[in-house]
């Protein structure tokens, strides 16, 4: 599974730990994480004073997170009037170039715009649930990840995905 | 702390001087510094409301406030505010 990460989920994945491992280290062996150069700059370069910025930079250097430049702008005119930042714009543009299966964003506007462009958007907890559904992550680990990242989400998001995990468990 | 020269409305200076004259506050610079901090907080809250409503993205929010994405993430964490704006607002 190839996914594009927006800045917010990347910070969260590089910040929170589960069973002694960063969330990003639980996810990256199970899916290909790609970010545009703008997100690398936002998280790993401008955020280098934060431990998660360093963690992101190290994983980029090791190739566990792949950075891709946006070479073609297909939707520049469509996106011009939305109040989006550079990282979000580039994440949307990169989707087709990278042949991604989903854009991982925790941002309402980016999520809606992606959906309006016909792209599949999901939040970080949705990705965790999806990987569990595909048998790539254990249910217990997925649930622990949900609980670890819960403080960054509004009500309903984690609860929804806990139910999804219970459904997956029920089918096993 | 960084010191800068800024132009300030006459009425704000008069308010600061009146506060000092009446013994409410004795330091004009501290009063003005407090106003700047309150202004920044007010701007952050204004933009957060727009972000909460889904009118602006996180990246746009950061740019408008003059913070990096990561600094804005930290600023919201410090205020115990979710960094995602999808889902129901806490009651």
Describe this entry's structure for a reader.
The complex is a heterodimer of chains A (172) and B (91). Chain A has helices at 7-15, 23-27, 37-45, 51-61, 76-79, 86-97, 108-116, 124-133, 139-149, 157-171; strands spanning 2-5, 17-18, 21-22, 32-36, 65-68, 102-104, 121-122. With 172 residues, chain A is an alpha/beta fold. Chain A has two domains: 2-123, 5'-nuclease (Rossmann fold, 3-Layer(aba) Sandwich), CATH 3.40.50.1010; 125-171, no CATH class. In chain A, the strands form two sheets. Chain A has a five-stranded parallel sheet. Chain A has a two-stranded antiparallel ribbon with strand order 2-3. In chain A, a hairpin with a 2-residue loop joins strand 2 (17-18) and strand 3 (21-22). In chain A, helix 1 packs across helix 4 and helix 3 packs across helix 4. The longest helix of chain A is centred in the last third of the chain and has 15 residues, at 157-171. Chain A is globular, with a radius of gyration of 15 Å. The relative contact order of chain A is 0.16. Chain B is mainly alpha-helical and 91 residues long. Chain B has one domain. Helices cover 60% and strands 0% of the residues of chain B. Chain B has four helices and no strands. In chain B, helix 2 packs antiparallel against helix 3 (58-65). The longest helix of chain B has 25 residues, at 28-52. Chain B is elongated and about 50 Å long. In chain B, 21% of the residues are buried. Chain A binds chain B through residues 7-8, 11-12, 42-43, 46-47, 50, 52-53, 82-89, 106-112, 123, 151-157, and chain B through 50, 54-63, 68-70, 73-74, 82-90.
């Amino acid at each position: 599974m190839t996914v594009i990460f927006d800045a917010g989920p990347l910070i969260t994945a590089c910040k929170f730990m589960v069973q002694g491992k960063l969330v990003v280290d639980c996810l990256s062996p199970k899916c290909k994480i790609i970010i545009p150069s703008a997100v690398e700059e936002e998280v790993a370069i401008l955020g280098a004073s934060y431990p998660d910025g360093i963690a992101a930079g190290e994983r980029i250097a090791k190739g566990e997170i792949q950075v891709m430049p946006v070479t073609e702008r297909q939707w520049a005119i469509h996106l011009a009037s939305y109040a989006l930042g550079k990282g979000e714009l580039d994440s949307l543009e990169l989707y087709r170039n990278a042949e991604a299966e989903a854009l991982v964003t925790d941002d309402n506007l980016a999520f809606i715009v992606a959906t309006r462009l016909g792209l599949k958007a999901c939040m970080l907890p949705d990705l965790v649930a999806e990987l569990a559904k595909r048998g790539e992550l254990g249910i217990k680990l997925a649930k622990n990840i949900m609980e670890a990242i819960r403080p960054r989400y509004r009500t309903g998001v984690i609860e929804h995905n806990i139910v999804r995990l219970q459904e997956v468990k029920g089918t096993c | 702390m960084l010191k800068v020269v800024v132009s300030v409305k006459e009425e704000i200076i008069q308010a600061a001087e009146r506060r000092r004259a009446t013994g409410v506050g004795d330091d004009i610079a501290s009063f003005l510094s407090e106003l700047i901090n309150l202004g920044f907080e007010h701007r952050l809250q204004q933009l957060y409301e727009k972000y909460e409503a889904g009118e602006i993205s996180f990246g746009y929010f950061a740019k408008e406030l003059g913070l990096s994405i990561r600094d804005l993430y930290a600023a919201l964490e410090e205020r115990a505010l979710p960094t995602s704006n999808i889902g129901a607002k806490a009651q």
